[in-house]
Write a structure and sequence with these properties.
The chain is mostly helical and 202 residues long. The chain contains four helices and no strands. The protein has one domain (4-192). The chain is elongated. The two termini are 29 Å apart.
């Protein structure tokens, strides 16, 4: 058994560890996506097959980026909730709390030089989601052009954009379904879910 002070320190240490890992892995995927985009836009690609390989790798890298950012968003949210719960039950005064008490409560969403309450992990997850769609649209557009499946349609450009967005949405949902089945963490049973009352800030 550990006392409340040590448990509090362990919780904060675990949260900070996950956050540092989140920064490392997100930088890793951003560098990979940047390198693939630079390769795709370069003049060194000599054939359409090379472009297709880059586009497939770009889509896969961005999709895995999105999966990892969703995972870390989930992990960080749970780590923060554990700290909130501990502070609510064991830290009596607000000025002793680290995570569940905001000192600065003024949000300046439209001021160019001041801060606002925006969660970085959610911003990264949104960016990875947009990146997945961007690579997917490029990939499917290239495939459609190769098999000339849309050239006979009137208003080709507009319909190409709509059809590729619909297709990539279906593909993303299918792959996320596979991720849910095969890559889901095993520590998600009800036995591990913290059951506590909603936290109310004082």
């Amino acid at each position: 058994m550990i006392n409340n002070k040590k448990r509090y320190d362990y919780l904060i240490e675990a949260h900070n560890f996950h956050y540092s890992q989140f920064n490392i892995w997100m930088a890793f995927f951003i560098v990979i996506n940047g390198g693939l985009l630079a390769a795709y836009c370069s003049d060194g690609l000599n054939s359409n097959n090379e472009k297709m390989c880059i586009l497939i790798l770009g889509y896969v890298a961005s999709f895995l980026f999105h999966c990892c950012s969703k995972s870390y968003n989930f992990t960080l949210a749970n780590a923060t909730k554990l700290i909130y719960d501990h502070e609510e039950k064991n830290v009596r005064y607000d000025h002793y709390r680290v995570y569940s008490c905001l000192i600065e409560k003024n949000n300046h969403y439209f001021h160019p030089l001041k801060g606002a309450n925006i969660k970085i992990a959610k911003v990264v997850t949104l960016f990875s989601f947009i990146l997945t769609y961007a690579w997917g649209i490029l990939l499917l557009s290239n495939i459609f052009r190769n098999i000339k499946i849309l050239y006979s349609l009137q208003y080709y450009k507009i319909k190409e954009i709509v059809i590729t967005i619909v297709f990539i949405t279906i593909i993303n949902i299918f792959f996320l379904w596979l991720v849910k089945i095969f890559l889901r963490s095993k520590n998600t049973s009800n036995h591990f879910i913290l059951k506590s009352k909603p936290i109310t800030r004082k």
